[in-house]
Structure formats: C-alpha cells, structure tokens
Design goal:
With 406 residues, the chain is mainly β. It contains seven helices and 20 strands.
Length: 406
C-alpha cells in the first residue's frame, strides 16, 4: 500500500493442517482432518522502521516554499523573487500543514483439509478468505500565512510579489483530493473495504522419524497466487496475496524434555518467483506516487521462517503453548528496462520477532487411548504479538481454531 499499510502478516504459520501437539505428527492412513481458523488483527497503526524503531503510520507533511520548489516554473519564479527580496519570507512561507492517519483491520478465515496418504505422509490444502478495512483520515492541521508574508515583504515596496502572494489560492484538503483524482488518476483518500480469497497453500508432509520421545518431519509444497494484489489506483488498497507462485521446503522436529513437556521447532525456506506487476513511476525520487504506470518484473525477496515452542500438557486434555516466530524476507528487486525508475532503498529487507501464547483443549489422546470421545477434536485460542522488527507492521492478533479428525 502506498501509504505504508502493507501486510506481511500470515506467512507460513497461516496454515496448520494438523492440530496435534507434536510438530512431527501426521494423519494415519485414510484419515481426514478438517480445520477452521479465524484470525482477527488489532487496528494496525504502527510499524517498525529500518532501524527497528517503533513509529506511527501517520503521515504529516507541509506545503511550503522548500517542499514545492521545482514543481512549477511560474511558482519557482515567484519563490526566487521572494527569496531575493526577503530570505526570511521565503523560509516562513507556508501553504498549510496536513496529516494522514491510516488504520487497518484484517480478519482471515482459513479452511484447512488434510488426508493421510500412508503411515508417514499427509497431503493438505489451506484456503484463506480475507475481510479487510482501511480507514484513512485526511485533515488539514494548519492554514496558510500569506498575510504574514505580505507584512514581512512590505506591501508598498514590492507591489508585484505582494499582489501574487495575496492572489495565491488556499489549498484545502478538498483541493488536494481533487489533484489526486484529476491529475494522478487515483481514487479519493478515505475508507476502503474488500473481501475475497487469499493465496492457497498445498503441500505434503512426510514423517522421517518417530519415537516415544520425539520425531522429525519434512514438508514441501506450493503457494498459488489466488489472492488479489493491490490496485495502484487506490492508495489505501492492500493485497490478499503477493501475485506470484511460491515454492517452499520445511523441516522440523519435536522432542520430549520431561513428561508432559515438549519442545518443537521448524524452519521454512520460501522461494518467490518473478512476476509482472503494474507500478506507478515515481515523480520524485523516494516517493511512490506518480502519474505514469509501467509493467515491471518484480522479484520479491525469498523468505525464511523459524518457529519454535514449548508445550505443556495437562491430563491429556489441555495444552499450554509458548511460541516464538522469526521472519526474514530479502529485499525486493525490479528487473528490466524500467527497473532504474524505482528507488531500491524503498524495498528493504524485512525482519521480525513475534511471541505467541496458545491454549488448547484436545480430545485426541483420550480418544486414541480409550475412545472416551465420540469424535476426536481440538479447540484452541491464541494471541500473537510482534515484539520487534525492521520494515514491518506491528501486529497484535487473536486466533480461534477448531480441528476435527475422522
């Protein structure tokens, strides 16, 4: 999103076709798993910058002599005359101050399906559906000071400059909206809502080792670009997918440390293929908004996701899980004849650390042990929070999940 609300949220941990405690567990041959997961974010209003500092997504900007100099030859001539007559007047000249306050909320429903191919292999499919709303409040926080400039210059001594100053238009937020629509060809800043499917993940899990005290698992698959990508003509638009095919491999293990206490860890590498995207050509270096659009070859950075957790079981009915997510995505690159039009420093590497706490009620072990429950299932609730990062949104989210096995 051009206003800075981009969502690199639900990477590999969006899909979890199995709900059992140990990472290396797979479905028995011929058995099915159905899963429904509801993910709800907080209002996303902060992000981590390239130095790891937490900052607001709000944007404040001034329209003054220094910021708009060079945009128009007639205005440049006026500012040159104003600066020659009174450098103080040029330094103090102001059209106005403005503030953009974006806020995003995203809900995701994930439907998962798993099937046991054999004693050690499971095939699965995860399909997410997004509901998103972005509210962008755009306000003028300070007006012009044309009268002050006239007083500094002196109305009697420099008639031409003072007349031009008095005749300058007052640039309200309505005028800026009109410029965005009529000149840049984008839709007005305001409220945007959308819903639809995200990118679908399909994969195969193979258990490579299993014992009473632990095990290991290998996973590979593909992520299909079935989610919509952001429209360059809508500033507050966000993507439900990244617009290209991804492939991934993942490996992990689980280990029983003490009775009822387990440690699980997994690492995933995702390769993102090139894709053709429509991007606006920046009018000024370092900005993302321009009049012209071009087709470019975009190569999103490859991703590494590492997840680990400690799991404590109580009476084979309840589990408490404490987890840590690490996410790394390489810098985005543009290729081809148009690549030089984009400022590569705007597409930096992304990193994040996040914590998660999860409570689970499960009937699986009781069912397998003595058939106490008619249908094995798991019901869980979790809370996820970004702890630190670079070039990524600060996200809090809650997740509710139901898994059944039959």
């Amino acid at each position: 999103m051009n206003l800075g609300i981009f969502l690199i949220l639900f990477s590999f941990f969006l899909y979890a076709p199995l709900g059992q405690s140990a990472y290396y567990d797979v479905l028995p041959q011929g058995r099915f798993n159905l899963q429904f997961r509801l993910i709800k974010t907080n209002s996303i209003v902060n992000s981590y910058d390239s130095s790891g500092g937490l900052r607001s997504n709000d944007v404040q900007f001034n329209l003054d002599g220094k910021t708009i100099y060079g945009a128009n030859e007639i205005l440049d001539k006026y500012f040159d005359d104003l600066s020659n007559i009174s450098p103080e007047a040029f330094d103090r000249f102001q059209i106005g101050s403005y503030e953009i306050k974006p806020k995003a909320n995203v809900n995701v429903r994930v439907f998962g399906f798993g099937y046991g191919l054999g004693k050690k292999s499971t095939v699965y499919l995860g399909v997410p559906f997004y509901q998103a709303e972005v509210n962008v409040a755009f306000n003028r926080t300070k007006g012009n000071n044309y009268d002050e400039i006239v007083e500094i210059v002196g109305e009697d001594q420099v008639t031409t400059v003072t007349q031009i100053t008095r005749g300058l238009p007052d640039i309200t937020k309505g005028i800026i909206q009109t410029v965005l629509v009529d000149y840049f060809g984008v839709r007005p800043i305001g409220t945007w809502r959308a819903e639809g499917p995200g990118d679908i993940e399909a994969g195969i899990m193979h258990q490579i080792y299993s014992s009473q005290s632990g095990g290991a698992l290998f996973k590979f698959g593909v992520i299909l670009p079935t989610g919509k990508i952001e429209n360059p003509d809508i500033l507050q638009d966000i993507s439900f997918g990244d617009g290209q095919v991804d492939t991934f491999i993942e490996a992990g293990f689980g280990l029983e440390l003490y009775p009822q206490l387990e440690f699980n860890s997994s690492t995933r590498f995702t390769y993102q293929f090139d894709s053709q995207k429509s991007r606006r050509v920046p009018d000024i270096t370092g900005t993302s908004l321009g009049v012209d659009k071009v087709q470019v070859t975009e190569k999103l950075g490859n991703k590494i996701d590492i997840y680990s957790n400690l799991t404590y079981s109580i009476f084979n009915l309840f589990r408490l899980e404490l987890g840590h997510h690490y996410h790394l995505q390489g810098a985005t690159k543009y290729r081809g004849s148009s690549s030089s039009l984009f400022n590569s420093s705007s597409f930096r590497q992304v990193t994040s650390h996040a914590g998660e706490i999860k409570f689970v009620f499960t009937s699986v072990k009781r069912y397998l042990k003595n058939g106490q429950f008619f249908l094995p299932f798991e019901l869980s609730a979790s809370y996820f929070k970004t702890l630190k990062g670079e070039n990524i949104q600060a996200v809090n989210r809650t997740t509710f999940q139901l898994s059944t096995f039959f």
